[in-house]
Amino acid sequence: MFQNVGEILMLLWRTAWALPMTWRQRRKVFDQLFEIGNASLLMACLLSLFIGGVLALQTGPVLAERGLTSFIGQIVGLSMCRELAPAMMAMLIAGRIGSSMAAELGSMTVYQEIDALRSMNINPIQYLVLPRLVAISLALPVLVVFSILIGWLGGAVVSVYNYQIAISYEGYFNSLRDGIDLIDVVNGLFKSAAFAVVIGLVSCHQGLHTIGGPRGIGRSVTKAVANSIILILILDYFLTRLLMHLD
Amino acid sequence: MNATAQQGVNLRARDVCKSYDGQRVLNGIDFHVERGEVFVLMGPSGSGKTVLLKHLIGLEVPDRGEILIEGQPIHSPGVVDRYRLAMVFQSGALLNSLSVADNVGLYLSEHRLHPPETIARIVTEKLALVGLKGIENKLPSELSGGMKKRVSIARALVIEPQLILYDEPTSELDPLIAVTIGAEILRLNKRIHVTSIVVTHDRELAFGIADRIALMNEGELIALGPPDQVKANPHPLVQRFLQADFRFNPESITP
After folding, report:
1. Are residues A171 and A156 in contact, defined by beta-carbon separation less than 8 angstroms?
2. Do the beta carbons of residue A209 and residue A5 sit within 8 Å?
């Protein structure tokens, strides 16, 4: 485990060192961005709609009992942008995109494509890892913005149509506007960018260190997703503490 | 291409040892290859030929010993940038997400050596050289094993290498194409004096193209010299390997 962490940090360092080459790899960055958006946007929206809805459904009746329904917009809004949207989108992307990155790089490793690149003096970090890491770091915060907006909408629909809550759209969004600052959204985006780097690094690292045949690729994919999710949740705690401290 | 790029390099493997999980795969390999020489490595499967090839191009680092190109260790800074090295992998190792043209032109486009139109022309030329035409836009998944191998050879030729390593260049090829590939190895050698190291089981190819042949067994060199000298080597493993054939006596085979 500690060896893996060391290797992942080395990969981060080498990718950061290759960052000035991003413009040269822009076509691959766009391809990756398209793939991430195409594969995840619809699912992200659907997931967020229901997360917002469930959040309203769980908290709304309790608030209504105490005559506090005017706070439901704030609760759904803050939970979505500070915590749920970044964490849930990161887990979704770890499952959908992280797994695909690990599988693709794993297959390239097993079938000697990485060796072929190195034999042509083409740096696999620049050619393969850099575009993926840049693309996922750009795409995840954008997905989180969508997720926050759709999550708020999901919360609004449930708050309006659930008979135990029965608040107006206007009341819900007024409450949301009163309770949310731009800094709350920025906090969520900051977290999501950090999660994106973790997913990209862990998935690329697992892919590049794949050994064995198809079974090895499967093992790398599983480890990439599991390790990404574990690291996201651990990092989430520390980032939350840091951001609360900064607030 | 500049003048220095069109000449081979000399290579030396000095006491190269490598183990994986405690199992010794290369054991004190020591030989040199002269500039422009065609050096053939033969040996039974699992004798360490491909692992040695990976060491020779710098993809693996030996546990002990070193690989020298023009007298400089291959892993010292700048050596891989200074000399053009290419390898033809046994499986082809084409990038599956790229078209044939993009695969063949990858070295030129990534190192920005020519404008795209020139790269396209060079790619077409090299593909024609290995007997492939009109497949530039196909994906590797649409090609047969033999075609992938030829595309891989075209990809190596594009580099105009000073040292080219072939891992089983004629496996999966029909005899006609295999002969063409053998001739192409020699032609390249004559034209730009490239140093060639060929790993093969194909005895006809080996004895047809080699200036010198090395025979490996269990990670060690057991014979090394010009083809005639290797043929005459009395070592029992050498003789068994060189004389193995498919002429079975049907009565000696029991179900």
Report:
1. no
2. no
Q: Which of A107, A112, A117 sits opposite B91 (nearest CB)?
A: A112
Q: What's the rounded Cα separation, in Å, for the pair A22 and A11?
A: 16
Longest dimension (CA), chain A: 70
User: Per the domain annotation, does B105 fall within a domain?
Assistant: yes
The identity of residue A235, as a single letter, is: L
- Find the distance separating the first CA and the last CA of chain B, reported in whole Å: 60
C-alpha–C-alpha distance, residues B88 and A51, integer Å: 52
8 Å CB contact between A72 and A167: yes
Structural domain includes residue B63: no
What token pair was written down for B229?
């000298």
State pLDDT tens for residues B212-247. 999 998 889 999 999 999 888 888 888 888 877 666
Q: Which of A120, A125, A128 to mutate to test the interface with B (most CBs of B within 10 A)?
A: A120
Q: Is residue B238 part of a domain?
A: no
Looking up tokens 């906090």, which residue turns up?
A187
Per-residue exposure over A192-221, b if at least 16 CB sit within 10 Å of its own CB, e if not = bbbbbbbbbbbbbbbbbbbeeeeebbebbb
Task: Provide the domain count of chain B.
Answer: 1
Residue A38, number of CB atoms within 10 A of its CB: 9
**If we measure between CA atoms, which residue out of B181, B248, B172 comes closest to residue B208?**
B181
A208-225 pLDDT, tens digit per residue, is 999 888 899 999 999 999
Q: Which domain, by its residues, includes B114?
A: 91-160
Q: How far apart are CA B212 and CA A17, in angstroms?
A: 44
Strand partners, B16: B29
Look up tokens 């007298």; give the residue: B71
**Facing residues of A67 across strands?**
none
Contact list in B for residue A115 (CB cut-off 8 A) is 54, 59, 87, 89, 93
Look at strands B85-88 and B64-69 and give their pairing. Answer: unpaired
Q: Kindly list the residues of chain B whose beta carbon comes within 8 Å of any beta carbon in chain A.
A: 54, 57-59, 80-81, 85-87, 89, 91, 93-97, 106-107, 110-111, 152, 155, 159
The 3-state DSSP class for residue B49 equals: helix
B118 within some domain: yes
Q: Is B212 helix (H, G, I), strand (E, B) or coil?
A: strand
ipTM of the complex: 0.84
Please report the pLDDT score of residue B78 as a whole number: 80
Contact A208, A109 (CB under 8 A): yes
Give how far B137 is from chain A: nearest CA, Å.
Answer: 18
Cross-strand bridge partners of residue B86 = B164
